[in-house]
Amino acid sequence: MEVKCSSSPPVPDSEGLMNGEISGRDSDSTVRVHTSERDDVVLNIDKQQHSKDSVFFRDGLRRIDFVLSYVDDKDGERKQERRKVYEANLVKVGLELETEDKIESEDGKTYFVKIHAPWEVLATYADVLKIKVPFKVNDIPDNSEMPMNWLSTPFRLPEHIMQPEPDYFTAPFDKSKADFFLIDNKDTFFPPSTRNRIVFYILSRCSYIREDCGDRDKKGIKRLLNNGTYTAAFPLHDSRYWTRSRDVNCDSERYNLYKHWARFFCFFKEQPLNLIRKYYGEKIGIYFAWLGFYTEMLLFAAVVGTICFVYGFLTYDDNQWSKEICSEEIGGSIVMCPLCDKKCGYWKLNTTCNSSWQSHLFDNVATVFFAIFMGIWVTLFLEFWKRRQARLEYEWDLVDFEEEQQQLQLRPEYETKCTNRKLNRITQEMEPYLPITSKCARSCLSGATVLLWISLIIACIIGVIAYRLAVYAAFASIMKDNPTTQLEVVGPYITPQLATSVTASCINFIIIMILNLMYERVAVWITDMEIPKTHLEYENKLTVKMFLFQFVNYYSSCFYVAFFKGKFVGYPGNYAYMFGSKLRNEECDPGGCLIELTTQLVIVMTGKQVWGNIQEALLPWMRNWWGSRRARSHPESLYSRWEQDHDLQAFGQLGLFYEYLEMVIQFGFITLFVASFPLAPLLALINNIIEVRVDSWKLTTQFRRPVAAKAHSIGAWEEILNGMAVLSVVTNAFIVAFTSDMIPRLVYMYAYQPQGEMNMEGYINNSLSVFNISEIPAENRPDDEENPSWYRDYRYPSGHERQYSHTMQFWHILAAKLAFIIIMEHVVFLVKFFVAWMIPDVPSDVRARVKRERYLVQEYLHNYEVEKLKIQLSKQNNEDANERLLPTC
Fold this sequence. Notes:
Pfam families: Anoct_dimer, Anoctamin. The protein is of the alpha+beta class.
């Protein structure tokens, strides 16, 4: 629906004031307020008794539903005209305004326009937006009590915090049937979150130019904020977070949220989701419900992952192949081929002793079990979340909300930019639409832009790989005389592999940050260019674009190490080179690629989480401290509620987007590559326990109150999680098969053990091939001579009729790897589909409650109409009877 705001300038009254403006203070502290009815209300107010921390107008009766702020500047004539017309149009719609002069502000230069929505405005737009309101107390018995409920007592919050309001049956508000609903007090019937949502809906659609200008695009508070006409627009918090409000009419819900939710020492307590929803709206409530549920489910994955890690630690001494590598008789006598041309020297196998032991902690039989378990865990997590989400949809009156979102709540930008109109078959009203040709052209341009940036990321990754190859050779040349040269400045022993990896990781991190910063703006620009129809569609389109980019940005290096590094190397004398250059393709770390993947995963995952939490908590706090440092030194009475909130950080349109993105990227780390690091769920669990409290603390104390918004689900993130769940089964199967040494060891133990016994003796010699170093071209051969030399592969030696071609064991291992992938994928997918089929998306009791509520709505509406009709007939009969009793002439 489009708000019909008149753009004609307001007509001044006898004192030269517009509707809704304040004439100022007289010597006797009198304030003259002009309302939409143009009645002059003289309010005698004792300045000493009036608290500026109040969330009401100066009369103490009308609640402040929204605040606009602005500052006069030298070029302010045009902006002043916009504000004049815009505020006049708001008054004509029915809103009531009260302006705080800059002399009343702490900084002496900021004006504050306080907005109040009276009952008529709220009722009208509640009807338009189909907001559900209570009409009867829920009489369905709640059988959700769990057995042995006393065990959860330490984790529970007080009932008035968990259930801030009774459970009602609700129905979409109908202004013509106002007496059908439970309206005890019109001033409190609509909660503040609903009130600010309605006011923002009006602000987003009201014009700020005169009608004779003919520019339909000039409307909405968003454009006024962008062009600097207003500096901020926000609803008010109801109190300070550290103390209750002095006003008995305020519930101090912000204080309750801080006390019972946002403090870190509440980390073991349940979240007051109903209070979060009531104060911040359903969209933010859904996010914290999902984050809390995800954290709870991580507990099971963390326990199993820790058990698998402990198994690797307990079987430490049974690691026969590591013993052979570390022994002087076997590992000390095996001289390995150089890891790069000319500049790299020979090295002994026992130098990889520590890497081999470390690799066993993660590369053991339990790894296979844990990979299968995580495939099933992901399915359980998604299926149980669907059930939890369905229950929240019912409890929070979000059933069938998506249809309302699509049909009724069009984006103001869509309404103004789409000049074509067509008939909506559902509402039978003319509505704007975007022609299919324009939509296709915009989508193609958007897709091409996304592909261009993803290609740029891949190009940067290839550049980092080329850097690693070049710098590795340089470090190897420097350290050739002593491969473990000690750097006196740093202290520990540095190898060419470690030095290269550290510098390459730093460069990769800088590239990620720069591209993230640039792409964020590009993604918003191309999404705006597509002109999505609704806010939900806008967020979904932006979500897909940003996630595709972040997926490539964060995971490409892990995919490279897991599936490409060391797989296309060749063999001595016939090495493969990168793009035909002199840079030889990179081999795995001497300890194997799995330990290198584990190391990279730990660094990227933990580093990102630690830095993210510090950044989320520290930056808003520092900005707020800097912005309000002068105001804190003033008396409390001079620092008003609207000024306090004005000094806080704005919770932008994409506030929750980055929170979801951070958690989904983490979800990818613990699912896509978990076979290489079973402790990843444990690290994620610890991070998320902190994340819940950091996000809640930040939202409650450091940000302005967001405009309440509805959402019935986590949106496009749900489909992304489903896609990652399927992909994780494939990636973990390939990691176990091709990155881990699990399959080669099993093939050796069951098929190639020389003594026919089930042990791993002789595995190291069996897994290496011999090369005649004299056959390496002179320009690539190191200066020192070692002959023969060994390398990791299964090839025939020099002099054999099929010299340097793959042995039969290589093909047996390859067949075993492919068979393992097929079997694991089919087993996990079958279990996933069975579990998904067994667990319904909507709990049976919720389905019954939804049907019951729909039935009652119809029944009560029918009874209401019947009673109304009876009353009308009774009145009519009484009137007819009175007419018959009148004497006739």
